Amino acid sequence: MTNARDAKASVELGAHLIGLNFYPQSPRYIEPKLGRRIVEALPANAVAVGVFVDGNASEIRETAKIAGVRCVQLHGNFSPEIARELVGEFRVIRVFSTHQRFRPEDVSLFPDSDILIDAYHPDLRGGTGRTCDWPAARATLPFTRFLILSGGLNAQNVGRAITAVTPDAVDVCSGVESAPGVKAHRAIENFVAAVRAAERHRGFVG
Question: Does an H or E element contain 196, and which?
């Protein structure tokens, strides 16, 4: 999310978590102070997630403090030690991409973190519009307490993705945008409706 209007609308339409991107090279990057204004505009039932790529625990802690987020999503080169350090203060979501070297059992190195499985891209960190390897994502289920499926999801394919992977939650970005960082509210509504339909048919809980 890059503005309070889209963030509030997403929650009203059914989103549980709202992402705020603090990776400067992303087209969806926002300053932490803007992040705080978005967080303060959200209803009490919404959870804001700070998205980070690489870095260290102290940098993440400082940015999260400015923005007022209590959940952090870690892309890139984050060790289990950094995740364990952050778990004492935040809900931590550790991101893995389904590249050729991905091994589902590797997610077990982060037992206190939620796990998000995304598509691989050599240059980008999320928001690529590519779907991930669904069988590989499903194979991580025995190794994690909470699985979030991401990567190229939209209203047309999310039902099939839920059936194939049975995640605890799903993550969407480019699939509900009219441009990078600009959310299409009708697309969000359609996406949530597709998730709820899959929930009714498959017992999905996210």
Answer: helix 185-202
